């Protein structure tokens, strides 16, 4: 018999990366027994988990073992097979966010179609049925446009920018040449990229967080600033859209809604993630209730927490330095932590490689300008390297 912990509930987490680890940290504060499933024996969440099932994310035996050891199953990423989870859900196992919401959201075309059907604003898009239809996309969407894999992909992977007819064939080949379903989406000349965390409880209550402004480099999130520098009317519209998105998918737990804001103030929904999100890490120090605590509250049927922003907050990702691969070595910690308000999070990944997310830093301050200045100084100090030879 697996002990149920102080709250009488056991949680199973599919994935033991940094998101799983930060969920686990909040669950352990509440005395909850947590089992993780991850194929990597010493993944970041391993050291904190009560039990670790070392199995592939698509391994039915491993997932069934996780279900038997858990009262509630959740996941740290959406690119997992839904067929096994559907069977487990039909057999009476609680899985949050629901498998129905996962199935729709993990397919970018189905996700966009669901949003469009709800009359929510999204970029123009269409499925690619046949290779011969490639040449028609520029006529309907205009150039440039994005060719996307319908499933999989993160941090820009699974997307190809088509600037003109000369890019069509190379973009098609780079995305598997039709081996997986593809879609095309109009390119949005946005002014700002923003995101909103939102959480839905089992009973249907919804809690929405402040709007964050995101900054990317090479399609990887580098920094999130909260609150976003937006006119009050635009901010209000964004928050209303996030609430409507939650009603569309009827999921339970944390979701992140990424949006574009154009120069004229128009808002378009870019993507929805059914889980805690990198752009929400600021909430650990910045909000009364972090996205990870909120997720645990939601999937256990507990009251949702206060989402109020305490002070202006900036989160900066710490990526593996170019030219280094191997066992992680973190330099500049002393100098960074000597700066006021700096909070350091290192995820516990044993090996670094260029542009891999290895941790993040957060700064809260009385004013956004001050927080940005401090975090830029801290980021200059911290270097994620290794003792291995230069890989370049």
From TrEMBL:
Which parts of the sequence bind ATP? Answer: 108, 148, 185-188, 193, 216, 270-271
Alphabetical list of InterPro entries matching this protein: ATP-grasp, ATP-grasp_carboxylate-amine, ATP_grasp_subdomain_1, PreATP-grasp_dom_sf, PurK, PurK_C, PurT/PurK_preATP-grasp, Rudment_hybrid_motif
> What are the protein's GO molecular function terms?
5-(carboxyamino)imidazole ribonucleotide synthase activity; ATP binding; metal ion binding; phosphoribosylaminoimidazole carboxylase activity
- Which pathway is this protein assigned to? Purine metabolism; IMP biosynthesis via de novo pathway; 5-amino-1-(5-phospho-D-ribosyl)imidazole-4-carboxylate from 5-amino-1-(5-phospho-D-ribosyl)imidazole (N5-CAIR route): step 1/2
- Enumerate the catalysed reactions: 5-amino-1-(5-phospho-beta-D-ribosyl)imidazole + hydrogencarbonate + ATP = 5-carboxyamino-1-(5-phospho-D-ribosyl)imidazole + ADP + phosphate + 2 H(+)
One Pfam family named in its UniProt record: PurK_C
Task: List the keywords (alphabetical).
Answer: ATP-binding, Decarboxylase, Ligase, Lyase, Nucleotide-binding, Purine biosynthesis
Domain of life the protein comes from: Bacteria
Q: Which PROSITE patterns match?
A: ATP_GRASP
Where in the numbering of this chain does the ATP-grasp domain appear? Answer: 112-300
> Which SUPFAM superfamilies does this UniProt record tie to the protein?
Glutathione synthetase ATP-binding domain-like, PreATP-grasp domain, Rudiment single hybrid motif
Its Enzyme Commission number? 6.3.4.18
In the record, biological process GO terms are:
'de novo' IMP biosynthetic process
* Similarity-based family: Belongs to the PurK/PurT family.
Assembly information from the UniProt record:
Homodimer.
Q: NCBIfam families from the xrefs?
A: PRK06019.1-1, PRK06019.1-5, purK
Function text: Catalyzes the ATP-dependent conversion of 5-aminoimidazole ribonucleotide (AIR) and HCO(3)- to N5-carboxyaminoimidazole ribonucleotide (N5-CAIR). Catalyzes the ATP-dependent conversion of 5-aminoimidazole ribonucleotide (AIR) and HCO(3)(-) to N5-carboxyaminoimidazole ribonucleotide (N5-CAIR).
Per its record, how is this protein called by name?
N5-carboxyaminoimidazole ribonucleotide synthase
Gene encoding the protein: purK
């Amino acid at each position: 018999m697996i002990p149920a912990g102080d709250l009488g509930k056991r949680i199973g987490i599919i994935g033991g990366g940094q998101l799983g680890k930060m969920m686990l940290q909040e669950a352990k504060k509440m005395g909850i027994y947590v089992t993780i499933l991850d194929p990597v024996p010493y993944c970041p969440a391993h050291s904190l988990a009560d039990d670790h099932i070392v199995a592939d994310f698509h391994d039915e035996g491993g997932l069934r073992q996780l279900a038997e050891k858990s009262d509630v199953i959740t996941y740290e990423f959406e690119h997992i097979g839904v067929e096994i989870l559907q069977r487990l859900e039909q057999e009476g196992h609680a899985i949050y966010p629901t498998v129905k919401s996962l199935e729709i959201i993990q397919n970018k075309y189905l996700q966009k179609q669901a949003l469009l059907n709800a009359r929510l604003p999204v970029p123009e898009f269409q499925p690619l049925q046949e290779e011969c239809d490639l040449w028609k996309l520029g006529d309907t969407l205009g150039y440039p446009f994005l060719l996307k894999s319908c499933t999989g992909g993160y941090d820009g992977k699974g997307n190809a920018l088509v600037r003109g007819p000369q890019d069509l064939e190379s973009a098609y080949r780079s995305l598997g040449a039709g081996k997986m379903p593809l879609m095309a989406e109009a390119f949005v000349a946005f002014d700002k990229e923003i995101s909103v965390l939102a959480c839905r409880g089992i009973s249907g209550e919804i809690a929405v967080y402040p709007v964050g402004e995101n900054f990317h480099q090479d399609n990887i999130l580098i920094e999130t600033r909260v609150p976003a520098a937006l006119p009050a009317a635009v901010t209000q519209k964004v928050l209303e859209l996030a609430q409507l998105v939650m009603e569309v998918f009827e999921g339970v737990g944390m979701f992140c809604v990424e949006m574009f804001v154009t120069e004229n103030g128009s808002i378009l929904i870019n993507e929805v993630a059914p889980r805690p999100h990198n752009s929400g890490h600021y909430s650990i120090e910045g909000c009364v209730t972090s996205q990870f605590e909120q997720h645990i509250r939601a999937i256990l049927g507990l009251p949702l927490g206060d989402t109020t922003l305490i002070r202006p907050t900036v989160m900066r990702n710490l990526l593996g330095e170019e030219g280094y691969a191997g066992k992680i070595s973190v330099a500049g910690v002393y100098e960074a932590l000597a700066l006021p308000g700096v909070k350091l999070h290192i995820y516990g990944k044993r090996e670094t490689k260029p542009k891999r997310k290895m941790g993040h830093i957060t700064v809260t301050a009385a004013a956004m300008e001050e927080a940005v200045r401090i975090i830029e100084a801290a980021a200059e100090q911290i270097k994620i390297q290794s003792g291995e030879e230069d890989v370049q």
